[in-house]
Design goal:
With about 150 residues, the protein is mainly alpha-helical. The chain folds into two domains: about 1-50, no CATH class; about 65-135, no CATH class. It has helices spanning about 30-40, 65-75, 80-95, 100-105, 115-120, 125-135, and strands at about 5, 10-15, 25.
Length: about 150
């Protein structure tokens, strides 16, 4: 990943190597934007963002040790992985009532099927609470008719 893959104006990160072979753009949170601003400040767009201690670019598995160290510091066992972080991100979006189409787009899916399969089932009580909070009362039953009114 190069510094030019971060777009501070759009708060996005271009993912150039994806399963589908197409470049996709991930929208960053405020915190992620701040991190990428720090990591890319004053560096040429062609510079690698993630470098080893010897200044060489990271290989495919060089993220394992930093994530394992961070997981240990946070008392997360077993250690997180990029896949776990991706799943957690999508799960939090789902539980925040983010539409499945938005989650699918953020994850780089062509349609919502995968997002629905993996995230729509989250927190059944959350789904029930969300439905109840977003539908107005029909006015069929008055407060006095409620079973709770007798208690």
């Amino acid at each position: 990943m190069r510094c030019g893959d971060f777009n501070a104006d759009a708060d996005t990160l271009a993912i150039r190597q994806s399963k589908g072979g197409k470049v996709r753009h991930v929208f960053l949170t405020r915190d992620a934007r701040k991190l990428f601003l720090t990591w890319t400040a004053g560096r040429p767009t062609t510079a690698q963002i993630f470098l080893r201690d010897d200044g060489e670019r990271w290989g495919k598995s060089h993220q394992l040790r930093p994530i394992a160290d961070a997981s240990e510091a946070a008392h997360i066992s077993p250690p997180a992985t990029f896949h776990v972080l991706r799943h957690t991100h999508a799960s939090h979006l789902a539980m925040a009532a983010t539409p499945m189409g938005v989650i699918a787009a953020q994850l780089g899916h062509v349609d919502t099927r995968m997002a629905e399969k993996h995230y729509a089932h989250l927190a059944p009580s959350y789904i029930a609470d969300t439905i109840r909070a977003n539908l107005r009362a029909l006015g069929v039953v008055g407060e006095a008719d409620s079973p709770k009114a007798d208690q």
